[in-house]
Protein: CynX/NimT family MFS transporter
Organism: Pseudomonas proteolytica
Amino acid sequence: MPRPENALEELLIDAEADDDQVQHSQPVVNRAWLLLLGLVLVALNLRPALSSMAPLLNDVSESLGLSAARAGLLTTLPVLCLGLFAPLAPFLARRFGAERVVLGILLTLAAGIILRSSLGAVGLFAGSLLAGASIGIIGVLLPGIVKRDFARHAGVMTGVYTMALCLGAALAAGATVPLSQHFGDSWKIGLGFWMVPALLAALCWLPQVGQKQGTHQVAYRVRGLLRDPLAWQVTLYMGLQSSLAYIVFGWLPSILIDRGLSATQAGLVLSGSVIVQLASSLAAPWLATRGKDQRLAIVVVMLLTLGGLFGCLYAPLDGLWGWAIVLGLGQGGTFSLALTLIVLRSRDAHVAANLSSMAQGVGYTLASLGPLAVGLVHDWTGGWAVTGWIFALLGVGAIIAGLGAGRARYVHVASERL
């Protein structure tokens, strides 16, 4: 085989070399490109169902007569479902194979997006539940696939699909309001549009189901994660940093609207902040894996996140875009490092899949309390100033958990073949 001409080609060839049962009907690099494209398109669909709601939350609430409490539940329910349904992912993967599960759940995600833009309030909540559950299951499976097929470049690949995930969130945050306005101020079309990229991702993922048929079918049961302190530190870091992220997705536009911005402006600020995450989501894992451990990187990105949040909440509006950029740099790094920790703290793909299930299942359930707390505090105080204390508590907790999770060691578990 000719020598690889660049690092990406080398990464793709190494990915196929890690798979000792691949089919040889296609060139090696072509198969790896299909997998890389599929992972990117799947990741693009893991946030639009969440970030598209926040800029339209006021319009949806007024249209359906939702109280402030029910609107707060609407921001909390999908995040809660991320956690509650994440434990299903390893079971489904053992039963049907990870590739088949990803394909099927992409279709349920598209169904949930359509459902929430129809059938009134019932459809809105039911569709949000289905979309959140779908995202939770797919999100658990991706770290295991990366660990299995890109084992030699786990940090880089985690950054790549995290960058795609952030891009999807940014597109939905920035484009949903203009889409709804283009179609006659119809929030239903603005929300329902995001089923299109989900169906496109399912179509592009289809070749993976055929290529992996009959391979990687050996199932393993991993025991001992719940007794391992390092696994809990990874889980707590995932949950606490995610809580801050979903507060931003769910409430930042409302905070900025109350500070004087229009709905379109607030959506663009959120979108711009998420776009900045593209850079740090790719750079942070790469830089963090160059040192002896990830503790310093975790502290840096969390401090950036807290600085950006406090700036958006308290600083004068004429410097808002600067604070939004700081926030984006921080949150892109915090999330990509959380996913990288799952891979780096696991000895193999089976452990990574189960640690991913624990970290995201328990973590996202914990994370759902953040948006709920912000909504309750806002209703109680009538403003947003006190929410700074919530930001501080979550951020400090994430740093403490991250200092444990960032140590260069593996979780101690037992893995047995079924």
In short: Residues 1-26 have pLDDT under 50 and may be disordered. The chain has one domain: 7-417.
